[in-house]
Specification:
Elements: H1 4-52, H2 56-82, H3 93-104, H4 109-134, H5 138-164
Helix pairs in contact: 1-2, 1-3, 1-4, 2-5, 4-5
Length: 167
Amino acid sequence: MNTTPLKQLGLACVLSLSALASAVAASSNSFVDDAAQGGITEVESAKLALEKSTSTDVREYATTMQEQHTKANAELISVAKKLDIEVPDEASLVAKAKKLLLEMREESFDKAYANNQVVAHEKTVELFKKEAESSDKPELKAFAQKTLPTLEHHLEMAKQLKAKHTD
């Protein structure tokens, strides 16, 4: 009996499983990276809003974002550590660039912040929906499902803020 084809099939199966495991790990790592970077960016932009805004509603919203995203970030770090997934400790260069653009815009700070919050929360809600629906890690799926309603509420708040601060 020639075992070479059988060995090749076995090797192909092992390689496929290995590639699948790597893709699954990359998917989980990608969610953790994106969620952590988004959360850190939310906290930093809220701090900026608290420094620059004079509007009571913007300052109240920013305070809520700072408190709730700090809490969610801590929970994400805890879940990721249990899964042995590394969490980035600062926002990506892209997020930093967005923050700088927010600081340099010609329009009012409050309008720029409100617009930024709608866009950021739309992306974050999509990220968390995807993870809640299709995560391979029960802990990350549960975190996404638990956090999603709060993020959807943040998006609605941001839309209301944007409506108030549109010319």
